[in-house]
Design a protein that fits this description.
Blueprint lengths: L2 H11 L4 H52 L3 E6 L3 E6 L8 E7 L4 E3 L18 E2 L9 E5 L5 E2 L8 E7 L2 E11 L4 E6 L7
Antiparallel strand pairs: 1-2, 1-6, 2-3, 4-8, 5-8, 6-7, 8-9, 9-10
Amino acid sequence: MTQQMRLRNADLEAGFTLIQLVSALSIIVIVTVIAYESYYNALPALRANTAMQLLVAALRQAREVSVDQRRTVQVTFQGTAELVGVIQGINGAANTTIYDYFLPEGFVYVVFSSIGDTPDGFGNSAAVTYNCPANSLPCTIYFQSDGSVLDGGQGSSNGSIFIGLTGQKNTARAVTILSATGKIKGWHYTGSGWN
C-alpha cells in the first residue's frame, strides 16, 4: 500500500459515525429518565422518613429536658401539624416554651383507614391516640421527671402519633411512646406492614 492510501484509510477510520453518536446519546437519555423517575417516586417516602425523625427528635428532647431538669414537660399536638413543648413552671413560675415545631411542609397528623396499627398495638383510632378528648386535637401529654409519660387525662397510657401526606399511603409513618418508661420508637409503613 502506498503512503497516500494509508493516510486516506486512517482518515476514514478516525472518529465516530453519526449512528454511533445518536445511539450513545439515546442510551444516556434513557438512563437519565429512569434515574429521574426513580428519584421522583422515592422523594415523598424520603421526606416522610425525615418528618418522622424530626418528630422523634422533638419528643426525645422533651423527655430529656424533663429528666435533666426534674420538671414536667408538656407536649401538645395541635392544629393539623403543630407540636408545642413547654416546661411547666414550679411554684407559680412562668412556663418556658422549648419549641413550637411544625411538621415539614405538607405533612399532617393522619390515620390512613386501610393501614392497621403498629406492632406495638397502642391504637390507631385517631392520628394522636393518647386518651385525648373525643379523639381530637389538641391533645396533650406530659413527660414526668422520671421520663415516664402521662396522657391528656393525667393517666398512664401508651400512645401513638400517625403522620403522612394526605392521600399518599407510602408516606405513612408512626411514632409510639411507652408510658412507663417514655421509650419513643419510630415506624414506617412498607406497603405491607410496619417496620
